Amino acid sequence: MLLRKRGTALSIIAIALLVAILATTNSIINYVDLQVQTLGRLVSPGATYVILSRNSTSIMDSQVDAELVCKLSNLSYVGYVLPQKILMVNLTASPSSRTVHVRSVEDVGGFLKTRRAYINGTAAKNWTEANAGEILARALSISLGDEITLAVGGRQVKVRVVGVFRSQTQSDAELVVPMETANRLAGNKDTVSLIEFTLKEGVNSLEAVNQITQLLPENVKLVQAQQLKEFAQRMSMQTLAFLNMWSLAVYAAIVAASYVIATRLIIESSYELAMLRALGGKKLIPLVLVFTYTTTVAFTGSILGIALGTAGAQTASTMLRWIMPSVGITPFLEAEQALQTLLLTLASSILGCIHPALKTARTRYAEQPL
Fold this sequence. Notes:
Strand content: 15-25%
Number of helices: 10
CATH architecture of the largest domain: Beta Barrel
Oligomer: single chain
Helix content: 40-55%
CATH topology of the largest domain: Barwin-like endoglucanases
């Protein structure tokens, strides 16, 4: 009798639209999370480590004692040791001028070799020479043989570009120079920005890292490069936290919607409920009827909302793929998530109808208009 009322369909649609938001969000985040995990499995973390200042906010703020380079080089289980100093430099290459990152290393050729870079020209061998990354060279129209001016504060040097390289790393947007060039610009030979090193093959990395950590002062930290697995885990945790916060808002809306649905049902069905009490029905009958009605509406709306949300996300992704073939997004919803959404929606709906249901159960039939 209650399900045949006019407002039942609208109530189901209201719950379905709210659940569809959850289903769409879940399906899209599932796809993003899958891509992040796939990325984490593509590249295995290598035995490359970096030493930085513990309290530094960026690499350019990092100050590491240069004497650590000698200590690391003397360890038998350490492969190559590559100290680097990174500066923000005002680069002038006629007719343009721009602030760029300059990375200085002891052996430019060895550094580019570790990055598997392709060089058009030669590697810089002294402080008057430099190598420009491909992206930087294109942005500033730098060519082989060009002379550029580097300035930091009141110091400046002129260098000649002897090679343009492509490494497919962040260094492609940088200028790579010998360490002496950075020392002339910064005026400090005792510190470097970071120390990069590797472990030799066959070495127990855990034991080696523990031994190296004991040699380091307290003001520096040791981190491993290419921690894609950890990155993927942090991304998953962040997306899960976002989804939980978003879900709380939607479930709160479902509670409010269920309260309105139950209140409307009681008002519109006051005659029927009063007749049941007048005919000798127990006090729990109105309570059971309101709970059953609200639960049925919530269950039906949940099923419809999960279907609409998942199908809508997949339809939108298909249309986007037709418009932009290079974009391939495939949202999907797992069975556990669908079940969890269904159960939480039912719980939220029951929570929303508790107050009006208890209120009508306490009302005597004589107080209700017939």
